[in-house]
Write a structure and sequence with these properties.
Elements (H helix, E strand, L loop, with lengths): L2 E4 L6 H14 L3 E4 L18 H9 L5 E3 L7 H4 L10 E6 L2 E6 L17 E3 L7 E5 L2 E5 L13 E6 L2 E6 L5 E6 L3
Helix pairs in contact: 1-2
Protein name: Phosphoesterase
Cofactor: a divalent metal cation
GO molecular function, one term: hydrolase activity
Length: 183
């Protein structure tokens, strides 16, 4: 199964267009959005091309392919614009015996994990910093941010393809981090 992951769009229409292009080109069945879709948040400057209503309209064009979780900047008002659910604080995807635990990262995070087993993957956003690593048998993955990257990283997204999770730059699709999650 091929999955594209994106986080922290924060209402940026150019970032939304870019991730939807990557999703379309990838041939992936699912686009997983791990929070902070429409609003930029009070601590952040307005991202490039800030247009939350247009972002909602564009995401709605692929609503049937989206699995999403609520970020700390997402609200019930945002849900009124979206044709797919975003109010769950977490979701899970099962791949055989392996679980992908999806959350934004403000409630559950690497310092406050839900109950996970060795071989599971904890997938979050929130920090805007890409991560692909394994600690104590659990995979930690963060696709970074498509609109407001931090830590000197480029805007990025994630891809699961043939058991490999990779963080890729949004601009030119360069792999900047990856980890094999196949048991």
């Amino acid at each position: 199964m091929k999955i594209v992951f994106a986080s922290d769009i924060h209402g940026s229409l150019p970032a939304t267009e870019a991730i939807l292009t990557r999703f379309s080109e990838s041939g992936a069945r699912w686009l997983v959005l791990v929070g902070d879709l429409l609003y930029h948040g009070p601590r952040n400057a307005l991202p490039d091309g800030y247009d939350p209503a247009a972002v909602a309209r564009r995401l709605n064009t692929v609503a049937g392919s989206i699995i999403a979780v609520r970020g700390n900047c997402d609200s019930e008002v945002d849900q009124m614009l979206l044709d797919f659910p975003i109010t769950a604080p977490w979701q899970q995807i099962l791949q055989g015996e392996q679980r992908l635990f999806l959350t934004h990262g403000h409630l559950y995070n690497p310092d406050n994990l839900p109950p996970l087993e060795q071989g599971d993957a904890f997938i979050s956003g929130h920090t805007h910093i890409p991560v692909a690593e394994k600690r104590e048998g659990i995979v930690f993955f963060n696709p970074g941010s498509v609109s407001m990257p931090k830590g000197g990283f480029a805007a990025s997204y994630g891809m699961l393809d043939e058991g490999v999770l990779s963080v890729r730059t949004l601009k030119d699709d360069t792999v900047i981090a990856q980890i094999c999650i196949s048991p």
